[in-house]
């Protein structure tokens, strides 16, 4: 019995999957349309932007940090790439790279302020959230960019699998998660991320450059926000200056529900994907049941508090 228990994953890793199974069972029993390929495809399309943002957020939270600016940085990236293409006439690939470059720059600035000036990540990213919001509104004149090249919306196209339409953006999201999972699990650089989150001082003493690791994590998170910018454009077909105002909290929710500890050093990045899908399933199922969106937000908030409470209790139990 003890040997079987030792082989099972920790409850923090199984929890998100169990929650997903329970949610699917409940909504499948109460709504006729839930268990359909088209509905599951729709859920994945709805979560792909937040899902990719959550990859960057997971990396930062693994180092015991947090990024409140992620949603607005994503929105700024989408405005930059669409306006560069529509107004400046840049080729779509170059405009996309410029958008990702801007989001990466914001990530780098966040990292420099955290590592060089030793400012708390919460304060730094709260400041850059407002800066990104202001730049987005000023640069776009608070107007939606509609003249978007077809290449920027290609990831929103779908292909048929078993009679269901699957978006190319969904495939990209899953591929990014698998790549990030492999990097964190199988490479020295990925293991350094966990080490910094567990004990930065001990990590520094064994010769790992903790500041360089943190700087790289924030910059890499910026790259993921840029990719999420492209997914947002491909999903909506426009550059929306009002996007990104809730995605930061949605991404944090996905990471926390996915079992990553807010105290750093613990978590599996694939759990963040499950966490994002759990939130998508909850909102989709409650919508099919005709439940008001206010109650959807309420339930999501309760789940976040429960996830953090379980994490805190498990940490105390492990001492």
Shape: globular
User: How confident overall, as mean pLDDT?
Assistant: 89
The total tally of domains equals 1
Oligomer: single chain
Count of runs of 4 or more consecutive helical residues: 13
What would you note in describing this structure?
The chain is mainly α and 319 residues long. The protein has a single domain (38-308), classed as ABC transporter involved in vitamin B12 uptake, BtuC. Helix content is 73%, strand content 3%. It has 13 helices and 2 strands, in the order H-H-H-H-H-H-E-E-H-H-H-H-H-H-H. A two-stranded antiparallel ribbon has the order 1-2. The longest helix has 27 residues, at 210-236. It starts with a helix and ends with a helix.
Task: Give a concise summary.
The chain has 319 residues and is mostly helical. Helix content is 73%, strand content 3%. The longest helix has 27 residues, at 210-236.
Keyword list:
73% helix, ABC transporter involved in vitamin B12 uptake, BtuC, mainly alpha, 319 residues
Question: How are the SSEs placed, and which strands pair?
Answer:
Elements (H helix, E strand, L loop, with lengths): L1 H6 L3 H20 L6 H26 L7 H17 L5 H24 L5 H20 L17 E4 L2 E4 H19 L1 H11 L1 H6 L4 H27 L10 H11 L11 H20 L4 H26 L1
Antiparallel strand pairs: 1-2
Helix pairs in contact: 2-12, 3-7, 3-10, 3-11, 3-12, 4-5, 4-6, 4-10, 5-6, 5-10, 7-8, 8-10, 11-12
């Amino acid at each position: 019995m003890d040997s079987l228990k030792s082989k099972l994953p920790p409850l923090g890793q199984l929890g998100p999957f169990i929650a997903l199974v329970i949610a699917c069972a409940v909504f499948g029993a109460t709504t006729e349309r839930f268990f359909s390929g088209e509905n599951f495809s729709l859920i994945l399309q709805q979560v792909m932007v937040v899902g990719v943002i959550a990859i960057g957020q997971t990396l930062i939270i693994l180092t015991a940090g947090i990024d409140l600016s992620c949603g607005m940085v994503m929105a700024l990236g989408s405005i930059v790439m669409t306006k560069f293409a529509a107004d400046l006439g840049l080729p779509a690939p170059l405009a996309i790279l410029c958008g990702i470059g801007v989001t990466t720059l914001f990530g780098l600035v966040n990292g420099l302020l955290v590592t060089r000036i030793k400012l708390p990540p919460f304060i730094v990213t709260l400041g850059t959230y407002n800066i990104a919001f202001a730049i987005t509104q000023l640069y776009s004149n608070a107007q939606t960019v509609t003249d978007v090249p077809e290449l920027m919306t290609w990831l929103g196209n779908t292909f048929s699998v078993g009679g269901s339409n699957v978006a190319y953006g969904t495939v990209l999201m899953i591929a990014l998660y698998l790549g990030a999972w492999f990097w964190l699990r199988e490479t020295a650089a990925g293991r350094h991320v966990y080490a910094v989150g567990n004990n930065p001082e001990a990590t520094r003493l064994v010769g790992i450059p903790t500041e360089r690791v943190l700087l790289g994590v924030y910059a890499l998170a910026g790259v993921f926000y840029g990719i999420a910018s492209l997914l947002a454009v491909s999903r909506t077909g426009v550059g929306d200056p009002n996007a990104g105002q809730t995605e930061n909290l949605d991404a944090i929710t996905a990471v926390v529900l996915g079992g990553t500890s807010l105290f750093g050093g613990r978590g599996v990045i694939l759990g963040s994907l499950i966490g994002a899908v759990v939130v998508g399933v909850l909102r989709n199922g409650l919508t099919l049941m005709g439940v008001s969106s206010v109650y959807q937000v309420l339930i999501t908030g309760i789940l976040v508090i429960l996830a953090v409470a379980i994490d805190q209790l498990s940490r105390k139990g492990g001492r």
